[in-house]
Amino acid sequence: MRWSKTFGIPAAAAAAVGAYDLAQKRHSLLRNFPVLGHARYLLESIGPELRQYIITTNDEERPFTRDQRRWIYASSKNVTNTFGFGSDNDIEFTDGYTIVKHRTFSDLPPSAAPHAGEKLTIPSAKILGAARRRRRAFRPESFVNISAMSFGSLSGAAVEALNRGAAAAGCLQNTGEGGLTRYHRNGGELIFQIGTGYFGCRDETGRFDLARLKDVVESAPVRALEIKLSQGAKPGLGGLLPGAKVTPEIAEVRGIPVGRDCVSPSRHTEFHDVDELLDWVELLAAETGLPVGIKSAVGDPTFWDELTRQMRATDRGVDFVTIDGGEGGTGAAPLVFADAVSLPFRSGFARVYAAFAEAGLTDGVTFVGAGKLGLPDNAVAAMALGCDMVNVAREPMFAIGCIQAQKCHTDRCPTGVATQNRWLVRGLDVPSKAERVTDYIGALRRDVFKIAQATGVAHPGLITVDDVEVADGNQHAITLRELYGYREGWGLPSPSDRDEITRLMTVEAVTTPGGTDSGGSVPPPDR
Fold first, then answer.
1. pTM higher than 0.85
2. pLDDT band at 117 (very low <50, low <70, confident <90, very high)
3. What's 4's DSSP letter?
4. Which whole-number Å values give the CA distances from 297 to 346, 376, 385, in the listed order?
5. pLDDT > 70: what percent of the chain?
6. 500: which residues sit within 8 A by CB, 6+ positions away?
7. What is the mean pLDDT of the chain?
8. Residue 337, number of CB atoms within 10 A of its CB
């Protein structure tokens, strides 16, 4: 009797599965190999986990390697994020490897401690909106900020943890195009993103509603507006939030019906060319007083040529430009868009920056980079190319628990970050994850700041395109200036901005808690 229970029930179940496999016509493998064929699908389903934890080496995985994730996890937990026994990257045989060139001597006082600069927020070298005299122009406290990730794509707990972490780190959080929610109202200052669906600032018919926008930005600490033209993961493609995920809360925030598919069009309806775009930018800036910018991936260059031509010829213009690389993307996208549409960050940003530089417009525009820039070496290269700030997305997702399961599009994120499933979301503890966001942002700023010190400058925005080389294995290495055709002075703020940010970093930092008097730099000798 016991034997029949032990083996009879599993045998009956296997027989039932086998009978079904033989009868079904969807999978040839299962018809030919009933029961056993399921092992193939099981291995396929857990393939990412097998590769992630067992098979691949520390620098093989994509989009983020094990070493990169280890650095982020350790930084966010405020534990040792140093590595022993040297680099395990194949430096001498890797094409496109980034090398930062340190300087032997500098006018700056030397760093005195490994953790120097951890408490410094390290502001942007430019005042956002100052060139166009926006009423609410300001200098961002942090050159590292949290990129656009919408509630709906992320859980409410994830958005709240990011906001609380941003508040403690003194950085900005971009709302994403999904609207401004209660999860964004926990102390962190915001950039409100306006997408093609105008979620959170639209009327009942789906058209943009200026009055609603003004009400939203006045109800929260919104510091700037960002018009999203496209994003790195799926440029030129709209989005879809399935009706099953449109909860009453999401519907209220976005201004859409409950339980119905939510479509983000591929393009805006409020403007149809550069001329109308600039008119709309000036309208938003005049009505709100806020700096207004655009976010875009880089494809056809004619848009940027026309934008810079009209900005130079008229009194209209954007206050900031956020360039998203094709390697970016926190959500779901068709594979061909993720792999093959839009330029990767460095080449895309360099082309856009060159268009503004040739038009003589770079000093009056704040440049923001996005697309896997939450790693120190990538951030350094971005700052050298001319970024004034960098936005990070997937990296703070790691800080709040993401394990790169790559299930963002399935609503089954196992750590509660990219899902609306209540059972999965309950596992994300907001207070502890907020602390990890703060620690991660601080560690990234510290490492980039220390690279700036190594190159002999007082601020990451002063790292030049001559300070960074790209190696072609053992064969050849060229500077970013040579690689992207930069001219003398390109990639740097104006002389007055350089002087001011140097003063802020070398004079005022001495009296800042956690600044140079708390283990930053040795004071220079009297001469």
1. yes
2. low
3. I
4. 11, 22, 16
5. 82
6. 125
7. 85
8. 18
